[in-house]
Design brief:
about 180 residues, alpha+beta, four-stranded antiparallel sheet, 4 helices, 8 strands, elongated
């Protein structure tokens, strides 16, 4: 049994797809910050507690330069974390505006053997067992062709039985188990 679903993406759908795809990278960046901040605090505490360490640190041009580099890297990582959401939103808006067919209706075919996509300009079918995986949140199902290439299926445009069929086919094909995000 095959189901065909015609959907139209909006900026929020594509933004949700980019966010789901990038959540692993954001977790890694936050983990990095959680490791660096205590280390930096420990160094500051040592410098405050021991006058000899403070004298050695302030008297060494090499250590002063390394401190400057460390502070610069910390600020850059922090700025990237803060700028991620606006950059993803901008990317979603520009993708919909500049890529032909992205804002036109997209037909997804949920067939027994393949996941099909048809747009105004292209048509493709992917065997379920060749998909890289899938993720979902409250808004979308993200079907991953590779780690970076994906299709967004907005849940609000699916009937409940179509959504269940899509999940069932994705799970049954041996694709990576979903990462469900609230």
């Amino acid at each position: 049994m095959s189901e065909q679903v015609s959907v139209t993406l909006d900026e929020d759908d594509l933004y949700a797809g980019f966010r789901l795809l990038g959540q692993r990278n954001q977790k890694q960046a936050r983990s990095f910050l959680l490791q660096v901040v205590p280390l930096a605090l420990l160094i500051v505490l040592l410098l405050l507690a021991f006058p000899g360490a403070r004298f050695a640190f302030l008297g060494s041009p090499l250590l002063a330069a390394l401190l400057g580099v460390a502070i610069l890297l910390f600020v850059i990582v922090l700025a990237l974390i803060v700028a991620t959401r606006p950059l993803l939103r901008r990317n979603a808006r520009l993708t919909l505006r500049n890529h032909p067919g992205m804002s036109d209706p997209i037909t997804h075919t949920i067939a027994p053997d393949t996941f099909g996509i048809r747009t105004v300009f292209s048509e493709a079918a992917y065997p379920w067992n060749r998909l890289h995986g899938w993720r979902e949140d409250e808004r979308i199902v993200l079907v991953l062709l590779t780690r970076q290439l994906f299709y967004v299926v907005p849940k609000r445009q699916l009937q409940p039985q179509q959504l269940e069929l899509l999940r069932e086919r994705l799970q049954g094909a041996g694709t990576a188990s979903p990462e469900v995000h609230p």
